[in-house]
Write a structure and sequence with these properties.
The protein is of the alpha+beta class and 257 residues long. It contains 7 helices and 12 strands. The strands form 2 sheets. Strands 1, 2, 4, 5, 6, 9 and 10 form a 7-stranded mixed sheet that branches. Strands 3-12-11-7-8 form a 5-stranded mixed sheet, with no helix packed on it. The radius of gyration is 17 Å and the shape is globular.
Amino acid sequence: MDLRAIAEEVWRHQVDATEMQKLTERYPGLTVADAYEIQRLNTDRALSQGDVLAGWKMGLTSRAKQVSVGVEEPIYGRLFRSQELTDGELSLAGLIHPRVEPELAFVFKHRLAGPQVTARDVWLATECVMPAVEIIDSRYRDFSFTLVDVIADNASFARFWLADQAYSPYHCAWDEVGVAVRQNGEVKQTGAGAAVLGHPVRAVVQLARMLAQVGQAVEPGMVVLTGGITEAIHLHRGDEVVVDFDGLGELRLNIRD
């Protein structure tokens, strides 16, 4: 199986924002390891073209989602600097069927690496925690995919946006932070940090341990999106989405052409 050719196909659909058929329908032998290799190959391509690896994102961080796809651990993808929003204006250009979800982002001052990383290690390595949103946008037709497919598609990553205000890692109990997502004035989703593996720090622990298996690490300055606190909501042209993080302020996203 030519993983480079498959990676080229995925890359083309990501760049062109065009839907594709599930890889697993055409390459039934494709494994999770293959999918992460496809993700890595496309990371190398992005970096060779001048992009910067800004950090990592976690997916499938709710137990219900894990059960629904038959896995026992989350998945991860890469964040790229070129896809970081600097304000609340989101253009639909380059997106197929985008959705938004609220997250808590950890930003690191020290390297986090190894198969035995603990929550204590994460706190000691963390510079700050920031409210964030992630825009996800599967390149697969009808937003339908298997575990292998979504990993190969960089865990559906499209854009991310961090709040202006950062907080000490010890500012509050992050599992108790409540979040409400309003779309055009109507509350669409609510949740709390505990929706992410019981506590968002556990997502970072699992990420570090998973990265250790492939010789990777969370480097100083990197951002880690710990996973969606609520279900993602669909975005449409003209929408205003306000994500309110209890006691931490809000992120206001305006959707335009």
